[in-house]
Write a structure and sequence with these properties.
This protein has seven helices and five strands, in the order H-H-H-H-H-H-E-E-E-E-E-H. The protein has 172 residues and is of the alpha+beta class. The chain folds into two domains: 3-97, no CATH class; 102-165, no CATH class. Helix 1 runs antiparallel to helix 2. The longest helix has 13 residues, at 3-15. The structure holds zinc ion.
């Protein structure tokens, strides 16, 4: 990974130690400023494309306990150079996605009881629908409990407007 890119990233992470809305917005803005370094494929693979396509102010974010990124400040330069962009973006994505609202609900496929609000578009439907995604195994179901079997075309985090449309209250 390019050292200058890393340094500019750490400057952003250092601006706000606690993870809050500003931390989220700063990282999204940083990604937008540096898309030159990231191929569309990379952004898509780590589900950052969906995130960058939306105004960060539209998202409701919560703080999350542990930031892998913030704890990287001390990594040696040699380690940074060896780190693949792919790995870096995976961790950025994990950090950001972890900040979206979740609902306490048992996943049907694993032992986790926390599901994230997402909006999906399926191949057989030309509209978006609110769904819940297991934070561990990624299993999806419609927000009202209907089983989801269709092929998913896109998944993005749910925004404030998605919630208001459905009069849902996100747990933060
Ligand atoms: Zn699960």
């Amino acid at each position: 990974m390019n050292l200058n890119l890393w340094t500019s990233f750490i400057e952003i992470v250092n601006l706000h130690d606690c993870k809050d809305e500003t931390y989220f917005k700063n990282i999204v803005a940083w990604l937008n400023r540096n898309t030159y370094y990231f191929s569309d494929d990379l952004l898509k693979r780590h589900r950052l494309d969906a995130l960058l396509a939306t105004d960060p102010a539209e998202y409701e974010v919560r703080s999350c306990g542990y930031s892998t990124l913030a704890n990287w400040k001390g990594i040696e330069e040699s380690g940074i150079k060896r780190m693949k962009l792919d790995t870096f973006l995976m961790l950025v994505s994990d950090d950001l996605w972890e900040m979206f609202p979740t609902k306490r609900q048992q996943c049907a496929h694993c032992d986790v009881d926390e599901m994230r609000y997402v909006v999906i578009r399926t191949e057989d439907q030309d509209r978006e629908e609110l769904a819940l995604e297991c934070i561990q195994c990624g299993d999806l179901e419609y927000w009202d409990g209907r089983e989801l079997q269709a092929n998913i075309q896109t998944i993005r985090p749910a925004t404030k407007s998605d919630r208001l449309d459905l009069r849902l209250r996100f747990k933060r």
